[in-house]
Amino acid sequence: MSVTLKDVAALAGVSRSAVSRTFTEGASVSAKTRCKVEKAAKELGYSPNALASSLTTGRTKLIGLISNNFHNPVFLEVFDQFTRALQERGLRPLIVNLTDETEPANSVRMLRQYSVDAAIVASSTLPPSFAKAFHDAGVPVVHTFGRSATSPEVHVVGIDNVECGRMAARELLARGYRRIGYLGGPKDATSAMDRYRGFMEEVEKHPELEVSHSFAGAYSFEAGRAEMLRLLEGSPADGYFCGDDILSVGALSALRDHGLKPGEDIGIIGLNDMEMSRWENIDLTTIHQPIKQIITSSVDLVEEMLKDPKRYPEARIFPCRVIERGTLRPRP
Amino acid sequence: MSVTLKDVAALAGVSRSAVSRTFTEGASVSAKTRCKVEKAAKELGYSPNALASSLTTGRTKLIGLISNNFHNPVFLEVFDQFTRALQERGLRPLIVNLTDETEPANSVRMLRQYSVDAAIVASSTLPPSFAKAFHDAGVPVVHTFGRSATSPEVHVVGIDNVECGRMAARELLARGYRRIGYLGGPKDATSAMDRYRGFMEEVEKHPELEVSHSFAGAYSFEAGRAEMLRLLEGSPADGYFCGDDILSVGALSALRDHGLKPGEDIGIIGLNDMEMSRWENIDLTTIHQPIKQIITSSVDLVEEMLKDPKRYPEARIFPCRVIERGTLRPRP
DNA sequence: CTACATTTTGCAATCGGTTGCAAGCCACTG
DNA sequence: CAGTGGCTTGCAACCGATTGCAAAATGTAG
Fold this sequence. Notes:
- The structure is a homodimer.
- Chain A has three domains: 44 residues, no CATH class; 126 residues, Response regulator (Rossmann fold), CATH 3.40.50.2300; 129 residues, Rossmann fold (3-Layer(aba) Sandwich).
- By secondary structure, chain A is of the alpha/beta class.
- Chain A is built from twelve helices and twelve strands.
- The structure holds a DNA duplex.
């Protein structure tokens, strides 16, 4: 079937060790044998079996990438960045699509079976305990977009969702909105609750405000749209913080159905700044989350952990900022 | 570090073979030993090392998933479906993000190093030769969304892009468009050229038509928008077949900039029927491509190939149909 | 209880590599 | 030329599993 170490060794007239050594960084081989081996390897089209070598080295370079946000377009960017960042470092993404699963047990077992060197939980909805389960099973883990904590149990890279909630509230206030609402993601998503907390904390400083809140069933267009349609049946607020860009886009679609102009009749501010939010026909004012930096940093952290699996847990929090586009009225 | 076969064998007081056999389907073990082993395994939290076993069985259950469409939202669905379909069958997706690479050599080498059982090339832009390279390297391969051929060299699952071009042309004609244009994806994409061919073939039957065509730089919103903006500078057609939904959405955005109403001033028909096309604020008339069926079928085919790697190559072509929404004028 | 068929079991080789160790090689020094 | 030290090299054990084979255990029939 496939060509192995032994075949190359035979052709080159050297021992198997010699072949192995020419293919491992920093091993001691003379220029002469290296040359012979490389020639033989090329001739046979040999490339070393990564899995076999993992048996002795204990390294597979496989990284589990676990996610559940397959209906949010921002995930396409996340996914693109992650796979590229990993590849660039010679690491291989092994994907787990959680769909609606929220228990880590299956993913943990599976990724252990494949001896992944580390796991990345890329989700803003799963609780810290999810990532913790990997840690407890001895799999180094980074929780990207996870809940930030002052004393994290596992590595977390992302944003301060509570602060983002405050930021959104302040932005609405600064633009003169007085009847304001939070339209969040699902109640069981940590990010939805954290953003809610920050938002409420800020608006409660102003007792004169009329404040409302509600939670969509998912981080999806349909859920955002459905929730906004429901709100429009009653007496809606005039400025909303939608807990995520895709919810915002759904909400914008609902406004349009009712003949309402975003930014004029009702204001919307989102969170994420996904590519689509820049599209001229969406033009969403939103809080920018530095996705690329977050992901690069996550992968950096993964690499660090490969060197030192006992690394002391750390939270890397990146600042966000408001991107002004067309869905909030201008500052006075 | 991690608990192995040997540990379980020791605790259960049986040989390593016995342990191995209790974990492999259809091996001969008595109920008694099986029970002892399972108890010991549970106690130690043992789960077999898939990579070690792959050494002897020659099966990894790893499937390479190769793609380059990370800027087209439809890929999110593709990706969701693929990862789920594979997981359901106990297979594990190992991702390769090609970005701009068009040479198969690197991916082939990498996937061979990881001994994937098969590869899926999920791309409508890469040529058949790309997938062929995997086949030639001894890696069973399915080219999903690939160019359909009457005598394929490797397994292809997808649609007949030429026929889709014809279908789009007929639809525009049936609705009374007489100045019609093709706004395709990049010229080096097989799907862009195939759709173009079918489209032209059909319109050339009607010499009275005024026909134009152009190709966007990529399958992306920006490229579609830019190309349509360019067309609007001159004298645009009044009905367009955009070679892909994301191009259509870009084009729609351009129309809006010029104060033109899609479906009234200028007609647009897309291809794919991605989720977003159903959104009320997009409402794109398009040709539906049965993505879910295509992907399920692709994974079925992968499973077949695992049983019989020498399986005779086959093209599985799925019919498409026009989904009427709001961006073409009604049939007379 | 014996003879024979059928399971069940453990031994040992194997999969494709890596690596500690000791021996071999070489050049250089005195 | 013997002695020293630094590189190279091959041997053989090992990583964590699977599996053919033969021995052992069990079951069945006479």
